[in-house]
Amino acid sequence: MDLLDTIIGAGGGNDVLHQLARRSQLSPDQTMRAVSEMIPALTEGVRKNASQKGGMGALMWALSGGRHQQYLDNPKVLDDEATVSDGNKILGHLLGGKDASREVAAKVANDTGLDSGTIKKMLPLVAAVAMGALSKQAQWSGLMQMFSGGASNLGDAGRGLGMLEGLLGGDKTASAGNVLSGLAKNFLK
Question: Which of 169, 118, 138 is nearest to 72 (CA)?
Fold first, then answer.
């Protein structure tokens, strides 16, 4: 299960995506397209950061608090300004700064035909939700347990990165169109 699957399945349905749609004043289809275009940039940021020296440990520390899971468990918190603030911090860590975030927003707007201002406002929320999805996946998969006693439990640092790659979707070449065709029918019910 990749991040988009986890987000779509959150709350026993599509509560997170419906909340994002409502907050962004987009249709369910537009929201699905925007989120599916944002996730690859965010997952690439996770991959890049986790592969740096100490990055995997820092990621596990960030995920271990469990507070990111609230974005999936209680989607109403997406209306809180604290969520936007947290999402902006996540974007800073994953993408490296405001310029990179703006580039992602511009690309998503271009690829989806949606207003770039709406996408810019939506991106921190999607980053927070993606972190929540990753936190849930890391917990379910046992990845966090590997790190709970420190990096010495890994034995092989590559093993943790390999597990993370599986959580992120593994296939970096999967197109958003393929993802959408399999998932949109559930969201658009």
Answer: 138
Question: CA neighbours within 13 Å on the CB side: how many for 54?
Answer: 0
Residue whose tokens read 């820092």: 58
Tokens 């169109």 belong to: 177
In terms of Cα–Cα distance, which of 142, 171, 131 is closest to 50?
Answer: 131
CA distance 112 to 133: 23
DSSP 46-84: HHHHHHSTTHHHHHHHHHHT-GGGHHHH-GGGGGSHHHH
> For the residues 12-35, what does the mean pLDDT come to?
88
Q: What is the pTM of this model?
A: 0.78
Contact 160, 154 (CB under 8 A): yes
Contact status, residue 119 vs residue 62, Cβ threshold 8 Å: no
Where exactly are the structural domains of the chain? Answer: 3-187
